[in-house]
Amino acid sequence: MEATVCSAPVNTGFDIPARVNREGKPDGTIVRIKDFGDGGKGIVIIAGPCAVESREQLFATARSVKDSGAKIIRGGAFKPRSSPYKFQGMGEEGLRILDEMRKETGMPVVTEVMDARQIELISKNADILQVGSRNMQNFPLLKEVGMSRKPVLLKRGMMSTIEEFLLAAEYILNQGNENVILCERGIRTFEPSTRNTLDLSAVPMLKQLSHLPVIVDPSHGTGLRWMVPSMAKASIAAGADGLIMEVHYDPEQALCDGQQSLSLDEFSLLMTELKRIAAAVDRYIL
Ligand code: PEP
Ligand code: MN
Q1: H helices within the chain, ranges in order?
Q2: 5 C-alpha vs ligand 2 centroid, how far in Å?
Q3: Is 89 in the pocket of ligand 1 (CB under 6 A)?
């Protein structure tokens, strides 16, 4: 069973793309990653650093978030940075560290693919391909990840409507890959006090319109470490099937997105709170 999806029709003003449409799959899609799913009653927690920075950093963070209850590790090897002068990620070396870590801990890995030419290599080193916000409408990339059989975590474009988001997912499904997880990560609005405006209304809307699992990224959604726990809890209350959060063993020293990364202790505390919120909405943390 999933969180309540009331049956009232939604006047979207657009046609819901055929393959993502919930009508074709009223019970929802379960994306199976290793031995657990996403999209059912269980809620999956994905945690890890914005970027892989070193073996020590990834292993220390991964071991700790695993102990706290995270089920999937995140970590970028190829980073889409706004400035070409900022840390661009460790690239192939980062992938090797991710692969080593997942073999040692048994934790599945999600990492970003920015270019279709990277898919083959990243697929060997990761379990889920992340298509980031900046690439949500990179149609050749969407088609290529659609041809791969790896689960895809598709992040909402920072200026994309729900219709555009669903159409982007449709590109992937249209190539035969049904293992798509939608991720709300905040959109750009006139409000400067947060990095983005986390559109939590997208969660029930996407769940209503599509059978695909929906997760939330409160880290990029707010850009503020202290606000992440509140929005993580709100996301679960709103019906999200999972969360992806940035966690760093030393946020002050992070090479990327430290200001929105939880410390290991903050993440651990949040996990205990999330369990209570999940139970309150008749769900559980996987
Ligand atoms: C990320 O997950 O680190 C990232 C760059 O996310 P987004 O594409 O949502 O900005
Ligand atoms: Mn980041």
Answers
A1: 55-68, 92-105, 119-125, 139-147, 162-174, 202-209, 218-222, 228-237, 264-280
A2: 31
A3: no
pLDDT above 50: residue 50: yes
CA distance 270 to 45: 11
Relative to the CA of 79, which ligand 1 atom is closest? 5
* Ligand 1 site-directed mutation target among 53, 72, 155, 194, most atoms within 8 Å of CB: 155
**Which residues are CB-neighbours of 253 under 8 A, at least 6 positions away?**
none
Sign of CA dihedral 198, 199, 204, 209: negative
State the pairing for strand pair 242-246/42-48: parallel
pLDDT for 192-204, tens place per residue? Answer: 999 999 999 999 9
> CA distances (Å), 285 to each of 104, 160, 274, in order?
23, 29, 8
pTM over cut 0.90: yes
Q: What is the pLDDT of residues 237-281, one digit of tens each?
A: 999 999 999 999 999 999 999 999 999 999 999 999 999 999 999
Cβ(220) to ligand 1 under 6 A? yes
Q: Where do the domains of the chain lie, and which CATH numbers do they carry?
A: 48-285 (3.20.20.70)
pLDDT, tens digit, for every residue of 123-182?
Answer: 999 999 999 999 999 999 999 999 998 999 999 999 999 999 999 999 999 999 999 999
41: tokens are 């009653």
Cβ proximity of 172 and 154 under 8 Å: yes
Residue 88 has pLDDT above 90, yes or no: yes
